[in-house]
UniProtKB/TrEMBL annotation:
Alphabetized HAMAP family for the sequence: Salvage_MtnA
EC numbers: 5.3.1.23
Gene source species: Actinomycetospora straminea
Function: Catalyzes the interconversion of methylthioribose-1-phosphate (MTR-1-P) into methylthioribulose-1-phosphate (MTRu-1-P).
Pfam families, per the entry: IF-2B (PF01008)
Name the record gives this protein: Methylthioribose-1-phosphate isomerase
C-alpha cells in the first residue's frame, strides 16, 4: 500500500509517517508542538524537500494556534522550524507561505498550510508526466533501465513523488525495465525508502551500493539517471543528496542522460549558482555508525555534508511542473489557449 499522505493535518496536530522506522515498521507519529516538529525535521522523521515544505507550513500553523495575539513569538517559532535544514528551500518556502497569513489569524495560517499539502500531489503528477515525456524523448520510447539516488518518491513529498514520481509515471506507461536504487549512505534512504516504494509499486529493481553507480553507468547498465533535488539555483545547478554529483560525472562520461525532477518550489531564483547554496552538515555519528552499530573508531573525525551540487552543465535537464532548464536556459510552458 503506497501511502496516501506522508504529512497531514489531523485535527490538532501533524500526522507524519515516521521515515526512520521504514521499512521495518510503518508507523505514524503525531507532532503536536513546535518542539516536536523541530525534532522530527532534525532526526529525519520527516524528510525530502517537498515534505519538509508541508511540515514547515504546518509547524507555523501549530505556532499560530499556540500563541494567538503574539505574532513576534509565532515568527520566532517559524524561524526556528525553517532553520533546522538549510539546504532544502521548500522548508523555508512552506514556512513563509503560511506565515504570510498571520495577520488574518491562526485559522487562516492553517488553511494556507493545508493548501500547500493539497497542491502537492497534482504538482508532482504534472512534473512527473513532463519528466517522463522528456526521458522518452532522450532515450527512446522503450522500457528504460533507470538509476536513482536517495529517495524522491511519495515519502519525500506529501504524495506521489518527484524523481521517483517520474519513474512511477514511466512504469504506468510500461516503460521501466529496471531501477537501480543506490543505497545512499549514510542514512540509507535509497535502501530503506526507495526500495520499499518500488516494491509497493511493483517496479523491477535492484539495490546497489553508492560506489557501484558510476561503474554500472560505464558498463552500459543504465539508460538514464533520474533524481530529485533539494534546491535548484537560478543557473540550473542542483543540490541533491550527497553522491548525486558522482553519478552525474559518470553519466556525462558515458553519454547517459541525467534528469533532475523537482517542483517549482524547489527552484530558487534568488540563489544565482550552486556555489551559493548552503550545504547542511550533519552529525558525525551518522557516518561513524550504521543503524547504531559503530563502524569506525570512536571519536574519528568526520566530513558529513548531507548534499552535493551538480553543475547544470552535467545535467540533461531540470524539469518542474511548468518549466525546463535545458541547454543553459529556462523555458516556461505556456498554458494551452482556451477555446
Ligand atoms: C524529493 S526530495 C530531495 C531529494 O531528491 C532527495 O533525494 C534528498 O536529497 C532528500 O534528502 P533528505 O536528507 O533525505 O531529506
Amino acid at each position: 500500500m503506497l501511502v496516501a499522505r506522508t504529512v497531514d493535518w489531523d485535527g490538532d496536530a501533524i500526522a507524519a509517517i515516521d521515515q526512520r522506522a521504514l521499512p521495518a515498521e510503518y508507523r505514524v507519529r503525531r507532532l503536536a508542538t513546535v518542539d516536536a516538529v523541530v525534532a522530527a525535521i532534525g532526526d529525519l522523521t520527516v524528510r525530502g524537500a517537498p515534505a519538509l515544505g508541508a511540515a514547515g507550513a504546518l509547524g507555523v500553523a501549530l505556532a499560530a494556534r499556540r500563541h494567538p495575539g503574539d505574532p513576534d513569538r509565532v515568527r520566532a517559532e517559524a524561524e526556528r522550524v525553517a532553520a533546522v535544514r538549510p539546504t532544502a528551500v521548500n522548508l523555508r518556502r512552506g514556512m513563509e507561505r503560511a506565515l504570510a497569513r498571520l495577520d488574518d489569524g491562526a485559522e487562516a495560517v492553517l488553511a494556507e498550510a493545508c493548501a500547500v499539502l493539497d497542491e502537492d500531489e497534482a504538482t508532482n503528477r504534472r512534473l512527473s508526466a513532463r519528466a517522463a515525456d522528456l526521458l522518452t524523448e532522450l532515450c527512446g520510447d522503450r522500457p528504460l533501465r533507470l538509476l536513482t539516488h536517495c529517495n524522491s518518491g511519495a515519502l519525500a513529498t506529501v504524495a506521489w513523488g518527484t524523481g521517483l514520481g517520474a519513474v512511477r509515471e514511466l512504469a504506468g506507461r510500461g516503460r521501466v525495465a529496471e531501477v537501480l536504487a543506490c543505497e545512499t549512505r549514510p542514512l540509507l534512504q535509497g535502501a530503506r525508502l526507495t526500495v520499499w516504494e518500488l516494491r509497493e509499486m511493483g517496479v523491477a529493481h535492484r539495490l546497489c551500493v553508492d560506489a557501484a553507480g558510476a561503474s554500472a553507468i560505464a558498463r552500459g547498465l543504465v539508460d538514464a539517471v533520474v533524481v530529485g533535488a533539494d534546491r535548484v539555483a537560478a543557473n540550473g545547478d542542483a543540490a541533491n543528496k550527497i553522491g548525486t554529483y558522482a553519478h552525474a560525472c559518470a553519466a556525462v562520461r558515458s553519454g547517459v542522460p541525467m534528469v533532475v525532477v523537482a517542483p517549482e518550489s524547489t527552484v530558487d531564483h534568488a540563489t544565482p549558482t550552486g556555489a551559493d547554496i548552503a550545504i547542511e552538515e550533519r552529525d558525525a555519528d551518522e557516518v561513524r555508525t550504521v543503524a547504531g552499530t559503530p563502524i569506525a573508531p570512536s571519536g574519528t573525525a568526520v566530513y558529513n555534508p548531507a548534499f552535493d551540487v551538480t553543475p547544470a552543465a552535467l545535467l540533461s535537464a531540470v524539469v518542474t511542473e511548468r518549466s525546463t532548464f535545458r541547454d543553459g536556459a529556462w523555458t516556461v510552458e505556456t498554458a494551452p489557449a482556451l477555446r
